[in-house]
Amino acid sequence: MLKREMGKRLEEVRESRGLTREEVAEKAGISTKFLYEVERGKKGISAQTLLKLAQTLAVSTDYLLKGEKEAVIWNEKKRLNTIDAEKARKVEEIVELILEL
């Protein structure tokens, strides 16, 4: 059950960021097939892979594992700034609007 729920959250975050499986897998150093199987709840992942995926997608490991309502934003100095999910969505919307310009 946990694998399936985590996989679903992983896929939702990836899609909300507008990233393909290929892009995320490459950045996280895993195969696209493996990421697909994780998103489908067929494979579990190590703590190291979980951390790489969370960093790649700029979310907390707690969110991926448990669905906690906070997000993590990585700034250019690689420091973590934790914000609530609503603020994270607003930031994403603003970024999308800027990119459309």
Characterize the structure shown.
The chain is mainly α and 101 residues long. The chain has six helices and two strands. It has a two-stranded antiparallel ribbon. A hairpin with a 5-residue loop joins strand 1 (70-74) and strand 2. The N and C termini lie far apart (42 Å).
Structural descriptors:
single chain; 101 residues; 10% strand; 63% helix; mainly alpha; two-stranded antiparallel sheet
* Coarse structural class: mainly alpha
Oligomeric grouping of the chains: single chain
Mean pLDDT across all amino acids:
82
Largest sheet: 2 strands, antiparallel
Helical region count? 6
Overall form? globular
Give the N-terminus to C-terminus distance in angstroms: 42 Å
Low-confidence stretches: 75-80
* Helix-strand pattern: HHHHHEEH
Question: Which helices and strands occur, and which strands form pairs?
Answer:
Elements (H helix, E strand, L loop, with lengths): L1 H15 L4 H8 L3 H8 L7 H11 L3 H6 L3 E5 L5 E5 H16 L1
Antiparallel strand pairs: 1-2
Helix pairs in contact: 2-3, 2-4
Quick structural overview:
The chain has 101 residues and is mostly helical.
